[in-house]
Write a structure and sequence with these properties.
The chain has five helices and 30 strands. By secondary structure, the chain is an alpha+beta fold. It has a four-stranded antiparallel beta sheet, with helices on one face. The C terminus is likely disordered.
């Protein structure tokens, strides 16, 4: 009997066959990954038709299936709660965990009370009842860290509350509050007054207060149109005011002067929603006519008009836009209107990406600070949340779906196909 070959000798004998097998498997894997990337890219419109796939109908069907999957995922709410049926002002914390609402009226000890309520968004449980306003709440503002809430009422009193404890920290007075916001650094409260008249007789359309002390720091005089919306630029020094004639006025707090007026549409619409882009370069405005306009506010140039928000009004009632934000990654422009529709559009092109339903007039939308959830608050206390789909086109453009990366992401059984 001949001696059994040693393991190293057997390995040397089998090595050529193993190398051939590995080469074949590697070639098949590369081909599968290559076709997988091409089909995925084609399905979302990232390659030229005909250059790599000979049957465009297959691409069309693949695109439809992926679009259906993404649409189903992006339009089905993952949270649907009710937090009271009379509130009409809402504000989410940046992380989406809590919601402040105002507008409900209570009878307490024989007198009318107009409290602010704090809710847990995941459970719908009321966390705090902030009672102290003798007049209905007109506007709400939140510090950037989500720790303090400012509620301004129709009597011209602004109360500052702790979101954690529910205790009132301080209050300050300014006649006829119309709109209010907190500066990005959290140090100042910026108020637009309805008539531009303070209790001491001084005129000022924009009032700037120290948030921690309530001291009036600055007044910006301006006599003109009533204010219907307000937004503060990321640098905290420019303030945009929407007016009742569909125009937008830009003020510089450093010089206390108006530096730009963006013209209206010529129709009797209120400018109902405003927001700046995170880099401060663009300004987005929405009006009662369901139209969004994108501005280069520094030059006053209108970059684009988005009319895709328009819907057939019921019994001739306008469906104005009352909620408008730009996602932190600057990809999506999100707007909610009076008819209960939330439209998600591409921020650069205005292309409609998807439509969500809130079943009531939408007054607030927000994307959580981690970018994963979209929350909406509508009249009648209807609160909904959706998962945001991944940015597939941007991933492809950055090479995130290259074969080398896909190989690490694919399950083992797919690698062997």
């Amino acid at each position: 009997m001949s001696p059994r070959p040693s393991f190293p000798s057997a390995l040397l004998v089998c090595l050529p066959a193993l190398l051939v097998l590995a080469t074949v498997v590697w070639s098949q894997e590369q081909q599968v990954l290559h076709h997988f990337q091409i089909r995925l890219s084609a399905a979302i419109g990232n390659i030229e038709y005909g250059s790599r796939i000979s049957n465009p109908s297959l691409v069309d069907r693949g695109r439809e299936k992926i679009a259906d999957l993404l649409t189903e995922t992006a339009t089905a709410p993952v949270r649907n709660i009710r937090v009271g049926d009379q509130a009409w002002k809402y504000l989410f914390t940046p992380d989406g965990r809590y919601l402040a609402s105002a507008g409900r009226e209570f009878i307490r000890e024989g007198a009318n009370s107009h409290p602010v309520e704090i809710w847990e968004t995941e459970t719908g449980v009321r966390r705090h009842l902030l009672d102290g306003a003798g007049s209905p709440i007109r506007c709400l503002a939140l510090t950037p860290d989500g720790k303090e809430l400012i509620a301004g009422d129709f009597a011209g009193v602004a109360n500052v509350w702790s979101m954690e404890t529910g205790k009132r920290l301080r209050s300050f007075a300014c006649d006829r509050i119309s709109e209010m916001a907190v500066s990005p650094d959290g140090n100042r409260v910026i108020v637009a007054s309805v008539n531009g008249v303070l209790s001491d007789g001084k005129k000022g359309s924009i009032l700037v207060f120290d948030r921690r002390t309530g001291t009036l720091l600055q007044t910006v005089p301006e006599e003109g149109d009533s204010v219907s919306s307000l937004a503060v630029a990321p640098d905290g020094m420019r303030v945009a005011l929407g007016t009742h004639d569909d125009a937008v006025k830009i003020y510089d707090l450093g010089t206390a002067r108006m530096i730009r007026k963006l013209p209206g549409s010529g129709k009797h619409y209120y400018t109902t929603a405003l927001c700046f882009s995170p880099d401060g370069q663009r300004l987005f405005s929405g009006n009662q006519g369901n139209t969004i306009r994108i501005w280069d506010w520094r030059s006053g140039r209108l970059l684009r008009t988005v009319d895709g928000m328009a819907e057939v009004a019921r019994e001739g009632v306008a469906n104005g836009i009352h909620a408008l934000i730009l996602s932190l990654d600057r990809r999506e422009l999100i707007a909610g209107n009076d008819k209960g529709s939330i439209r998600v559009c591409h921020a650069d092109t205005g292309q409609l990406l998807r439509t969500l339903q809130a079943d009531a007039s939408v007054v607030r939308v927000m994307v959580t600070s981690d970018g994963k959830r979209l929350w909406a608050a509508a009249m009648e206390g209807r609160i909904r949340s959706w998962l945001r789909p991944p940015a597939f086109p941007e991933s492809l453009a950055s090479g995130a779906l290259a074969p080398a990366v896909l190989r690490q992401r694919l399950p083992f059984f797919l690698r062997a196909l």
